[in-house]
Each structure stands twice: as structure tokens, then as C-alpha cells.
Amino acid sequence: MRRDLAMKRRLMAPASVLAAAALVLSACSGGDSSTSTSSDAGSDTGNDAASGEAVTLTLAGWSLATTPEFEALADGFMAANPNITIDVEDYDVNNYETQITADLAAGVAPDIYTVKQLMTFPTFQEGGQLMDVSDVAAEISPDVATLEHYEVDGITYAVPYRADAWYLYYNADLFETAGVEIPDGQWTWEDFDQAASDVTAGLAAAGNTDALGNYQHSWASTVQGFANAQGQGDGEFLEAEWDYMVPFYEEALARQAEGSQVDFGAITTNSLTYQGQFGTQKAAMMVMGSWYVATYLSQVESGDAESFSWGFAPVPQQTTETAENPVTFGSPTAMGINPAIDESKVSAAKAFLTYIASEDAAIALAEIGITPALTNDAVADAMFAKDGMPTDDLSRFAFTTHQTALEVPLGTDSPGLQTVLGDAHTAIMSGSVSPQDGIAEAMERAKSEVLD
Amino acid sequence: MATLTLERPTTPRPLNRPRRRGRTLAGRIALYVTLAIAAAAIMLPFVWMVISSLKTNNQVFSIPIQWIPDPVVWENYLDIWTKSDMATWLRNTLILSVTVTCLQVLTGSFAAYGFAKTRFPGRDVLFLAYIGTIAVPWQAYMIPQFILMSRLGLNNTLWAIIALQAFSAFGVFLMKQYYESIPDELCEAARIDGLTEYGIWRRIVFPLSGPAIATLVLLTFVNTWNDYLGPLIYLRSPEIWTIQIGLKSFVSQYNAEYALIMTGSVISVLPIALIFLLGQRYFVQGIATAGLKG
Amino acid sequence: MAVPVLEKPAAAPAPPPRRKPGQRLKVRNAVIGWTFILPNFLGFATLTLVPVLILMYLGFTSWNAFGQATWIGTENFQRLITDKTFHTALFNTFYYAAVHIPLTLGISLGLALLLNRKLRGMGFFRTVAFFPYITSIVAIAVVWNMLFSPDSGVINQFLMWIGIDNPPGWTTSTDWAMPAVIIVGTWRDMGYYMLLFLAGLQAIPGELYEAARVDGANGLRRFLNVTLPCLRPTTFFVTVMLTINSFKIFDLILVMTDGGPGTATLVLSQYIYRKGFEEYDFGYASAVAIVLFLICLVVTIVQFMVNKRRER
């Protein structure tokens, strides 16, 4: 008796282990067959959908308490489609990719999810985690920017709703104190360097030693984004031929050495934030993405930022030739449909994707300060009607007119290349290696480890 | 130790006594001064947290660092309760920490007895498997584990974290090592007295392992309380967020409410500090062995 | 049931009457042993052991977290041989572990001995020593980074004050970033391991110290002849945990330097995370995890054997 029991016990443990192993292995090897599990996540709505009327769609967004864009899109859509409910699920903004990857792998991801970084799009697309939405793409306005990036072999897999671009922000009050002309929309990088140095000197002469001419945040994109957009030849990025980045680094280091912007080491060791530096008048200029417009306005309201006369201009160019249609870089954000979605909900999901790229949605986004993928005069009016927005023509020009290159050119190797370049950025900016050596080292690493 | 020194009037060297006492006093003062300085240095990051919690967001990070907030934003300590679900987060975290700690202590110490005081083939290999899993970084097997949890229907419930943390190899290992320092003779004697192995565990070994259990309770509690990655992956609905996850909701894509994050961090440290202050009383030499040799 | 019974006679045809009681005792012991372990083992096996075993399998595949994991044999491991960044991460991990382990071991044991007294206020100081471990790691990273700041940081100002003209750049320098991380790592972990040592010290019977004292042994002697041998199970536990945790160091590096400048503080755990969640190369990430696991396993087995030998 007792022996019998012993054996049972002894066998039970390994048996349960085996059963569990089988469970997971089947999941790891059969991603597509996992539709059954996702349907029970939305089973409460399944019946309703079958009866033909009300549909509930789930949507992955992030930091809902502080990011109004998802609710704005959902509300706008639900107002026009009363039989469809959009449930926004909250993800962590800094770990969105980790969370959504786990959800997709386990087959429990929402019906519609946001492709937060364009760079991860190839992974989701190749992994079979995005539904073909070419019919949606055919319906939406051709003015929607960056749609082409979500197309692979003639098939569209996601629809962008916002397209941030980088501007040159400036504090007109500090320029005035320093006695320097504010940006006129014709600046090259040399003009920019000169202004940074003049403003720093002018402010010091006027007795303001707290503020510098420029603030350049510690991110790699503040150098590499511009190099990729303005300095790159055809496809050099994806081939890891990065010599074009060297002059951009030399300029950044020169500004740092001259003291017209805070030194990289000081930024990282003191965890400086760009919102704090520009918002509390520690810098007269800053290149930053268009999202900062909304951030600054809300910070002024909450008292975290000071109120001063400000504006934004197109980013400095390589030459004045491109001043008519300035080249900047940006990063689109898109939404796609999870292929594991219940069959009955697909048309509703597609209707939502059509909506997010519409003018109505664009205006709704512009009203909360977000740069939509679709820009026209109506959208610009909505954007600049906000309280506290600059009213000058140059700011409006910067918003409406630019060619947006990608922050990181797109390919399957992009994430790997970006990791290598991220390491190079900290090494160069901290002064551990010269730009030439740092870039050369990164190119070698990329070629031997990332590209095959 | 000090009491021992004072207890020694019977030492056959009475001449030493005054000098000894003087030295101990001086030594003790020196000890306290050293400890106080070290304590101040060690507490610096916490002090910084407290100071930052009284600033506005953009003042938290600036050069040079502002050691005295101006203005002092006491409102942060009020705002955090109205701006967020702090109470819910604290409740969830408390539920998790208590449940996990209880389960970990019970199953861990029970299993530890099996490893420390019984002998059977394969025991050491099994034990190595336990330790072996500690050596694998969690982020490497996170996805397979997540898939498994979803299949079991546990993700997005508090059960996921309980299941994840309650059976960790750490507790088994800790308790096993402590049990090994309890003399086998004690168990032998109990066996002769007719106690079953379960009886020995319940009546003798478990009660004797006070300090080890206190350690396990403290460490498990703290680890569950401060766990970030586990809840991040498994707890998605705001109503089951823990405090560490909740604090991250003050971070948005392009901005962060640093002052509130620091306020929340200060609040979240206090309960553990209190529990520690109470729990550490079990670490006074002599308690454990009082019953052992009697 | 049938398997062991059939096996035994074949393996040993020796006198059956003698063996039977032994055999029964063995089974009985096994039953008892397993009943103790089972409640914990069931949870541990399904939720931890299985995913770890699957990871071992994934190390031999190419997998992007979605769809099919393709078996590619030892290809991942061959790639590791020529992967220079992996070598850097491996070196940095050993660097961190080699300095951090002895340093933390010494300091935490010292702290435990110092604070294991019945003096007034010891509870407070123990709590203080444990504080770094419970303070939010983000706050820790921020404050230490400020202290280490090359120009405005307190540490360098102090170093210059005592006459060092060229103080290190700490987290902004490729040579000094790792020492900076090790200092913070040790500072953070010392309270944790101190606690484990404190628990171990409680198991030492006070009578042993009394006896040693009567024999005229001085403090050092008592430490060497009483404290250390009695503390052996605890020391073993602390050493194994400290070793594994040092090789697995992740969160502290992530918040303090993120592996930089360049790859100066890139460690294996972080490399695994990057390869997995940033580059979606989960097969390769699993292979790196297996290497990390093997390193820890070898070191642990060595410690296990040393411990067994000392036990005798």
C-alpha cells in the first residue's frame, strides 16, 4: 500500500512536469494555431457579435492616465459608431514591446495593437502578427504620411495615426536678453553652432550664467537621427557604412567643448531631463520631437515649466538649398490588427483603422497637441488654436512643411544596428573615443555581428 | 557581548577592571560615532528621495543639486492619494507579499527538511536542479513561462505572482542550510522517543529555526514588495497593480512626474522599514540556542 | 512500480533476506523525503523548472517569440565563439563577479559581526544597513551617479581636496565605470547578506564561546575556531547565492550605466535581454543564457564539493 502510494507520488511530479512542458512546447511551435485561446479572452462579447450588432474591440495603448491620444481616438470612433465599443488596455510605456511580445506569443494580445516603434514593425510583420489591411490603406487619404513604411511586397500591415517630426525649439526671451536674432528658417548647422555660442556669451554678458545657448539631450537620435536624415547616401545605414556620422559628432563635441551646451557626462550623471532644461530656461535652444509642444504646454499649466515667449523653427539644414522644404527626421506610430482576432470582429477593427487615419481623427489628435499622420490646413488650425501655442508663421511652417526621413532606416537588421550605434554614441559623447575611431569600431562590430 | 563583559567580576584579575571598563566605554562611543557616520552615508539616497518628494517635477534633476527644496511642495503627499490609486496598489502589494511569504515559509521549510534531514537516492541531484534554476536569468525564460501561465489561465490575476514567487528555490536553499546546522542528534533522540519525521519537523526543527524563518520572511516580503518585472509582465489590469507598477504610471512617453514617483517610493519604503525594525529583534544571539542545549 | 522491482534482482543477485529490509527502508525514506519536498516541488517544477528546460531547448533553435522555433543545432553556440560583444560581456561579468563577491562577502560578514550585539540601538543600525536594499533602485542610481559626477560630484571633490589632481571619470569613463558599479553593487547588497549571516550567527551556541573564553582564546582565535566553522552552512549558502547573483547582475547596471560608456559595463544578463527583447533573437538569447547557467553551475558544483569535503 504504502509503496504504491510512494510510486504514485514519485510519478506524479515528473508527470506534471511533462504535461506542462508539452503545453508550452506546443505554444512555442504553433503560434498560428493559438487563436482558440484569444477568443475566450473576448468570449463575453462573442455572443453579441454573433447576433450581428454590438462589438467590443480591445486596443493596446500605454500610460492611459497621462496619454490622452488612445481615449481620444476611441471616443471619436465610438461617437460615430455607437454599436462598437473600444476597450483600451493599459501597457507600460517603457516596456511596451516586452509586454506586447509576451501577449502575442501567448495568444492573449488585444484585437488591435499599437506598433510603437517603426523599427519593431518588421519583426511583428515577419512573425505573422499583423493582419493584411491593404483594403483599409486603399480607402484612406493619400496625404497620410509614412503609410508606405508599413507596406511589404505590396501589402499594407498597419496604419499610422501620428507622425512626429523634429523641430528646433527656441526661447525668444533668452535670445532677446543675449541680443541675438531668433531662428529665421534659413539656418544651416554652422549658423546654429554660431547662434549657440553667441547666445551663451550674450547671456553671460547680461548676467545670466544659469542658461546656455543650446541643450542637446543624451539620446543617440539627437546626433544620429540628423545624420541619417541629412547626411546619408543611399542605403548606407543598412550596410553599416556610417562614416557620414563623423562630422555630426564632431560638431556636437565642439559645442560641448566650447561650453555652449551641457556636457554629456553632466547630463547622464545628473539625470538631466530635457523638459526641465528647456522648460525652466536653462537653455535658449533645443532640437526635440514635435511631442514636446504638448508636453511644454501642459507643464506650463501644471507649474512645472516657466511661461516665456517661445516658438519652433525647422531644424538646421546641411545647406540653405533645402530651406524651402526642410529635411528633418521623425518617427511614425501606427496600429495594426492581431491576426488572432475573432472573425466576426475584423470588419469593425478595420473600420477603426480607417478612422484613425481620417481628418476627423487628425483634428481630434491635434486638439490635444499631438502631431497626426495626416496634416492639412484644418489640422494646423486645430493645432495652433491651443492656448499658449506660438502664433508666428515660422512655427506653423515648421509644423506643416517638412520632408520627414526615418530616425532609423528600416530593415530586419535595424534593431541590431541601432544597439551597436547606441554603444558608439555613449562612447563618443563621453569622450572615451574619437568620433572616427568610435564609428569605425561600430562599423566593424555591426558587420561581424549583425550583418551576415 | 557587553553584558558578558560586565558579568565577569569573577575573573581572577580584578586589576584590569577599571581599565577595561574605561576602554569599553571609549570603545563604545567610538563605535557609535562610526556607526552614526556610516548610517548617515548609507541613508543618503533615501534622504535624497525624501527631499525630491518635496520638489516640483522639473526641480528633481538639476545642476547643481538643490538640497533644500524651494518651494517645499508638501502637497505631493496629499496629491498622490487623489491623483492615483495608491491605496489600491498598497492593498494589492500587501496581499501579495503576505500570501507569498506565508506559502514560501511553509512549503520552503517543509521541503528543506526533506533535503536536510532525510536521505534518498537522487536527493542531491534534485537539490542541484533547484539551485540550477536560480542560475538562469529570469528574462531568458520569461516568455515560455508567460505562455505556460496563460495556458493555466493565471496571467492578469494576482495568482500569477503568488505562483511565481511562492515556490522559489531560494527559500528551500536558505532553510536547508539552516537545518543542517541543527545537530542530527536532536532528531535522532526525537525518533527514539517515537516522533514521526513530520512530528520532528513540526515540534523540533521548525520551532528552532526562528532566525532563519525571520530572515526568510523579511527577504521574501521585501522581494515581493519591491518586485517590478514580475508584476509588469503578469499584472495588466489597473485594479491589480502593485505599488512598483503603479508608480510607473507616473511616467508617460514624453514626460514623468518625478516628484510623485519619489513621494510614492518614500511611502512604499516605510512599511518595509517598519517590518524590518520589528523583525530584526529575532537576531539577538542566544535566543535560538536557549532550548537546544537545555 | 514494476521497474525498480525488476531491476534490482538483475543488478544484485546477492542474499535476498538481508537486502529486503534495507530496500524497504530505502523506499520508506524516499517516500518520506518526497512527501516533504512535493508541495514545494509541484509549484517549482511546473512554473520554474519547465520553462527553464524549454529555454535549454530554445538555445538550439532560431525563434523570434512568434510561430515556429526552428531547430538549428549548435549554430547559436558557434556564433558565440566569434561574437566579440559576447566576449566583452563575458569578460565584464567575470570582472564584476571577481571583485564584487569577495568584497561583499567580507563587508557583510564584518557588518554582521559588528551588529550582532545586544547593544542599545543595534536594531536601528541593522535597519539602516538593510536600507540600501529596500530603497528604490532608481533613486539609488540617480544619487550615486550624482556622487560620481566627474566635475560636480562629491566623491571627486573629496578626492581633489585630499590632493588627487586627476580623479577618475567614474561612470563617464570606460576604465572607471565598472569599479563605480561594483562599489554601488557592494553597498546595495551588503545589508542583504549581512542579514543571512546574522541568522547564521544565531545558530552558534553561546556555550561554545564561553568554553573558548575559559580556554583563554582571544577574539581572533574565537572567530577562527568557533565562529567560522559553525557558520559554515551559512557561508556556503551566502557564497553560492552571492556568486550566482553576481554573475546574473542586471538591474543595477541597467539603471546606472545601461552598459556604457560604449560596452564598458555590458554584462551577460543585459546582453540576453538585448538579444531577446530588443532584437527578437530569442534562440540566440537562450544560448547565451545557457552559457551563463553553465558558468554558474560549474562554480556552484565546485563550491558544493569544497563544502562537502569540509563537512567531514
UniProtKB/TrEMBL annotation, chain B:
- Membrane-spanning intervals of the chain: 29-51, 94-115, 127-147, 159-179, 200-222, 258-278
What membrane topology term does the record carry?
Answer: Multi-pass membrane protein
Keywords carried by this UniProt record? Cell membrane, Membrane, Transmembrane, Transmembrane helix, Transport
Q: What is its main location?
A: membrane
UniProt GO BP: transmembrane transport
Q: Which residues form the ABC transmembrane type-1 domain?
A: 90-279
What the entry lists under Gene3D superfamilies is as follows: MetI-like
- Cell membrane as a keyword of this entry, yes or no, is yes
Task: State a GO cellular component annotated for this protein.
Answer: plasma membrane
**Compartments in which it is found:** Cell membrane
Q: Which SUPFAM superfamilies match?
A: MetI-like
Region feature (Disordered)? 1-21
Q: Which family does it belong to?
A: Belongs to the binding-protein-dependent transport system permease family.
**PANTHER family membership:** ABC TRANSPORTER PERMEASE PROTEIN MG189-RELATED, ABC TRANSPORTER PERMEASE PROTEIN MG189-RELATED-RELATED
Q: Tell me the protein's name.
A: Carbohydrate ABC transporter membrane protein 2 (CUT1 family)
TrEMBL record, chain C:
Q: Which organism is it from?
A: Serinibacter salmoneus
Q: Which GO terms describe its biological process?
A: transmembrane transport
Q: List the subcellular locations.
A: Cell membrane
What is the superkingdom listed in this entry's lineage? Bacteria
- Using the UniProt annotation, give all residue ranges assigned to the region (Disordered): 1-21
Its keywords, alphabetically, are: Cell membrane, Membrane, Transmembrane, Transmembrane helix, Transport
**Mind telling me which GO cellular component terms the entry cites?**
plasma membrane
Question: Transmembrane residues, as ranges?
Answer: 31-58, 94-115, 127-147, 190-209, 230-250, 282-306
**What is the protein named?**
Carbohydrate ABC transporter membrane protein 1 (CUT1 family)
